Amino acid sequence: MTREPDAAREAAVHALEQSFSELMTVFRRFVAEAAERVSPGMLPATFKTLSVVSRFGPMTLSALAERLAADKGFLSRSISELEDLGLVTRTPDPHDRRSRLIAVSELGHGRLAEARAPHESRLHDAMADWSVDDIQHLSVMLHALAVGEVPDRD
Predict the structure, then answer these.
(1) Which CATH class is domain 6-147?
(2) Domains of the chain, residue spans
């Protein structure tokens, strides 16, 4: 494999960092707006907690803390808030009665869908003229970057 000159690689990585910075700014705004749509005054981190439980299914507080690399105390307060709002439930873990499984309620799934809808339509609109192959390629590339692998060239 031939590497580009160091200056060209450095410039390309710098441009990628700038693009990610722009993307993260947009994403933070989306999360804050979505949290507000789920429940006025909800913190973005609480919305993220709800989203992760929704995406990965019922899980214990320990598993959630590990997945989010977050403090169990903060997460416990977030889960209590979400439970008070009727957005999650906690039930005994059938594999470990000392633990409880956190799951998103029907109301929680509905609120998440409503909160995400404006962002999803923006993403679809932004990529309307992209080919399916380009979208799939971007997905593969982002995954490879996230896990620190070299992407497949296929």
Answers:
(1) mainly alpha
(2) 6-147
